[in-house]
Structures are given as structure tokens and as C-alpha cells.
Amino acid sequence: MRKPLILAAILLLAQLALLAVHPSGAAQPPSSEGLDVGIVFDVGGRGDKSFNDGAYLGGERAQKELGARVRFIEPGEGSDREAGLRLLAAEHMDLVIGVGFIFTDDLTALAKEYPNVHFAGVDYAVATDSTGKVIPPPPNLAALKFREEEGSFLVGALAALVGHSKRVGFVGGMDIPLIHKFEAGYKAGVHQVCPDCTVIAQYAGVTPEAFRNPGRGKELALAQYQSGANVIFHASGSTGLGVFEAARQTGKLAIGVDADQYQEAPGFILTSMVKGVDAAVFDAIKRVKDGTFKGGIYQFGLKEQGVGYVYDPNNRKLIPDSVRARVEQLREEIIAGKIQVPSTR
After folding, report:
1. Residue 296: its pLDDT value, please?
2. DSSP of 258-318
3. Confidence (pLDDT) at 70
4. What are φ and ψ of residue 142, in 5° steps?
5. Hey, which of 32, 219, 224, 322 would disulfide with 229, CB 3.0 to 4.6 Å?
């Protein structure tokens, strides 16, 4: 009698653990036909109007164009992220996607544990050995990486050309190598067109919470504006909403990140450095559907149209034609290999 009771208790505890994960979309287990995809969002979740929303758009497009059934999971704290990935892998989804570098270790472990499930990691942090040689991800895991430094280079040049100041600002989220790529490219772009300009670079923190702290973002931005910067580029998730508030308050300009963030502060967003997270997610799903999915490292830069900057009717008045022409020239030089953009500080 005790054994059945113990078994029932274990199953109940397992179910309660999974309830800590907040799924959206279809809650049905994958079917035997069609394409089943699971996407677990990063810190900040849906509605960040940036990174996670880009992944959502990629999944939504796959639903419409490929007939995929996509299940979205928005985790809470800590182990919830791993629980979300494990839930999807255990259901033998055709593809499980983790959005953000923070999923790297969990994706690597689960890809080895479930060799028949395809995995993809947006901003997967590729490891190196003691000699500096890249350690490839498991054969069923695609590392979707972006050359953020290339897009950041262009908005850095833009900031220096329209800022009318020898000082420009940068607000990063978590102080990590991934965000250093944004900073390094931005600084290089600034100095390409203004060698004697100063870039003030500050970070919101050293934990993932640094990506969702608008108060801290506003505090850093106000200090940078007050020190003479007229344009600030943020790479900080929803922390950047505070940067936008500071731009409105001071009447100065900010640069968005990952997606077009103009609507967050119309008239005060010079441009946004965009990453094709939606396109990368859609591409991974399509590869699974087409039977061409392979593990490995996939890079998306200017050449692949994986990064860029926004120039449209909303911000055209803020960017003189001569500045636009100069930035486009720099884009072509990067694609042609004439300019090598640094990815580290």
C-alpha cells in the first residue's frame, strides 16, 4: 500500500515543479504529425519590445508560413529555465529553442541527454579549450550567434556624426563578454569618424537582473547626458526603457537595440541597432521542417543581413542625407572586409 502512495506523491511533486513554469500557446503534447517547436524566453520575457519579442515573432511566422505548432514558455526564476527546456525535450519536440546566452549550459547538457531532439540557442556562448580552440556544440545543437559588433559600429558612427558633442554614451546591461561586443563595436564606430571623441561606457550590474532594471538605466543615462553626451546607445534589455525616459526628460537622443524601439520614445530615438532574432529563429525551424538541420555555429552579421540599423520615415528627419551616405559607405567597407570590427574591449 505504501509503494503506490509514495509513487503518487513523487508524481505530484514533479507536476507541481513544472507548474512553476508559465507556458503560453498550445498546452497539448506534440502530435505524431507536423512540426512541434518549443521556445523558452530569456530574462524579461515577452513584452520586452526587444530580444524576446523578436524570438516570438520568429515563432509566430513559423506558425503562419510553415504550419508549425509552437509552444512558448516564459520562465520565472533560476531553475525554472532549465525546467522549461527539460519539459519540452521530454515531450520530444522536433525543436527546442532557448533564447539568450543564459541557456548555454542547460542546452548543452540536454542536447547530450536527448540526442534525437533538435536544439537551438540564440546567443549561445561558444566555449574554447585551454589553447583557445573553439569547442563545437553537440551535433544536434545549433548555436545562433550574431555579429553585434558590426551593427553597433554603424550606430556608433551615427551617434558621433549627429551628436554635435565630443562625448557619447553607452549603457550596457549585464557586464559580460556578449554585451562587450556591443560596446567594442560602438566605440570603434565612434572613433572611425571622430578619433578624439570620448565614449562613456557603464553597466547596470553583474547579474541577469541588470537586463530588467529601468531605474538603474535612467540613473546611468541621466549622469551621461549631464556630462555632455547628447546620444546614448543601450544594450540592456528592458533596462533601456529607463535610458529612453532619461532622453525624454533631457530632450536628448537614445539608440535602441535588438528591435526597432522608436515607439518607446517617439522623436527621441535616433535609431535602433537591430538583430534578426526573428529571422534566425524562423531559419532554424525551417531547417528542421526541410530536413536540413545541422548542429554547429551559425553567424549572422551585416553580410547575412543579421544585424543593421533602422532608417525609415520615423527617424529620417534626425539623420541628414550626408550622414546616411557616410554610414552606408562604412557598411559596405565592413562587408567587403576593408574594416575589421573588434568584438572585444
Report:
1. 96
2. ES--GGGSTTTEEEEEEE-HHHHHHHHHHHHHHT----EEEEE-TTTTSEEE--STTTGGG
3. 97
4. -100, 125
5. 224
Nearest CA among 217, 210, 227 for reference residue 168: 227
Low-confidence ranges of the chain (pLDDT < 70): 1-33, 44, 49, 76-79
- pTM, to two decimals: 0.82
Residue 13 CA neighbour count, 13 Å, CB half:
6
CA dist 153 and 175 (Å) reads: 19
Asked if residue 195 lies in contact with residue 179, where contact means CB atoms within 8 angstroms, the answer is: no
- In this prediction, residue 22 carries a pLDDT of 46
Question: pLDDT value at position 78?
Answer: 55
Closest CA to 172 of 249, 245, 255: 255
CATH topology of domain 148-274+311-335: Rossmann fold (3.40.50)
If you write DSSP's letter for every residue of 123-189 in order, what string do you get?
Answer: T---EE-TTS-EEPPPTTEEEEEE-HHHHHHHHHHHHHHHS-SSEEEEEEEE-SHHHHHHHHHHHHH
